[in-house]
Amino acid sequence: MTASYVYPKYPFRLPHGVVPGSGERRVPLVVVGAGPIGLAAAIDAAQRGQEVVLLDDDDTVSVGSRGLCYAKRTIEILDRLGVGDPVVAKGVTWNTGRVFHRDDEVYHFDLLDAPGHQRPGMVNLQQYYLEEFLVDRAAALPQVTLCWKNRVVAAHADAEGATLDVETPSGNYRLRADWLIVADGARSPVRKMLGLDAAGRVFNDRFLIADVAMHADFPAERWFWFDPPFHRGQSVLLHRQADDIWRIDFQLGWNADPEAEKRPERVIPRIRAMLDHQGYRNVDFSLEWVSVYTFQCRRMSHFRHGRVLFAGDAAHQVSPFGARGANSGIQDVDNLIWKLDLVMRGKAPVVLLDSYDVERTAAADENILNSTRSTDFITPKSPTALRYRDATLQLAAHHAFARALVNSGRLSTPTHYWGSALCSPDRDHFDCLLRPGSPLDDAPVERDGEPGWLLRQLADGFTLMLFTDRPESLGAVLAEFAPLGSDAVPVRCLVISEQPGTLDGVVVLHDVQHFAAERYDAQEGTAYLIRPDQHIAARWRKPDISSVRAAVARACGH
């Protein structure tokens, strides 16, 4: 318990039909780890009708803010999982970040510089709130069996699945899983039990994290200082969270003693110095949570090992500046679960899961590259590197070109799977970057006169998005595509029109502000095939049913 949050205690539970000591129980899908990634995986699979056993060795949510910044794309995924609204309602939304060098603002940036999006660039929310919302959502799905105080103590994988030995307060049992998703964190006990590891780099620097309760009128922005007068030679990061909790990160240097630096008598003077320097001498504060971390970037060589699939920090780890940890992990789940669902139902070949490995290891490499560059800029490793950094900061205050070189943590952006084998190459010319492999851009729309948003109108399956100025003229085209809805992997048609209208059996969205047509370079008859994870699989100026079916087959690994 903290001054601002009471940690829930969840009841111990065994999987259905399990009696400790009575033999092996077989289940189709097990997820290990009830953090944000494991919970998201279980919810996504359950929403698709899969029965899921979710195991966690604890009985509450994570202690401390931990994962903090959730990017626009992550919130859009959480919308699909049913928790986007409570996260945004409870969290602190922001789009502006400011970078300071000593006492001077070098520049500021806007994460969402274009209108017509439902969600903000970032939402700050302590991880324990996100987990609580996800637990509540999982509890509402009868397909999820969430088993607290179920610790995996041994794991073995083979060609047909995985066997887990589980320790509980009422005795041990053995679980046989056809498929296993491992989301048990950066230290991943299950990964070690399977004899696997993650390789990478540890950076010679340490940072102090402090969750601070205080009433202060700092704006809801990201503030980052290089070499501030109140913490000379180091860097400091400030974020606002829910409940008047402020997250402050202090660079400490590699020689700092982690245990000593966590003591209140060391933490409080640092915070007091920062507040005094910013003119908040009369602001009282208290410590909610303190931790010290070391920058690390590492990943497994492969995220798929037969019928065992790794996601989140269990698969890859990045330094925290840039908000690329939890955001990337939730996007892992978004990529994985629709593919696993199709494979489990026999509607796609097992090889489709190799695309999870290919697409998300590429995403991890992108995150690690950005995180490494951020770390190198924030913590220069030589006098020459320090001179370069300070010169860049001085130039950035006056010249736009230098701002692109300043790196206080490149913030999380969704990965584009442009090189994926699941993408159908363009055969027509388009004058926009939303090409096969790109995540969709949102846009305001109306449906039956009611305002809404494009992404909210997409189903969990494949969608063929058709653009027209005259909905009534699409009758023959839609009749051609109607059989797609009855295919083994069905495709739903969605019409986006410059004019309001209706069509029997087909959703028509009115592009009220022309944002959708503009973003997708739409002409009469333009069509986009959308994957279940809201990434583009193919696009055409004039599609035909055979081309759509071929693109669906390709996107399903055939």
Written overview of the protein:
- The chain is of the alpha/beta class.
- The chain has 3 domains: 24-91 and 124-197 and 297-369, FAD/NAD(P)-binding domain, CATH 3.50.50.60; 200-294, D-Amino Acid Oxidase, Chain A, domain 2 (2-Layer Sandwich); 444-555, Glutaredoxin (3-Layer(aba) Sandwich), CATH 3.40.30.
- 27% of the residues lie in helices and 28% in strands.
- Strand 5 (96-101) and strand 6 form a beta hairpin.
- The chain is globular, with a radius of gyration of 25 Å.
- The N and C termini lie far apart (51 Å).
- The model has no long low-confidence stretch (mean pLDDT 93).
Structural domain tally: 3
Specify the oligomeric state: single chain
What is the name of the CATH architecture of the largest domain?
Answer: 3-Layer(bba) Sandwich
How large is the radius of gyration?
A: 25 Å
**CATH classification class of the largest domain:** Alpha Beta
Number of helices: 14
Helix content: 25-40%
Q: Based on helices, strands and strand pairing, what is the structural class?
A: alpha/beta
β-strand amount = 25-35%
Terminal CA distance: 51 Å
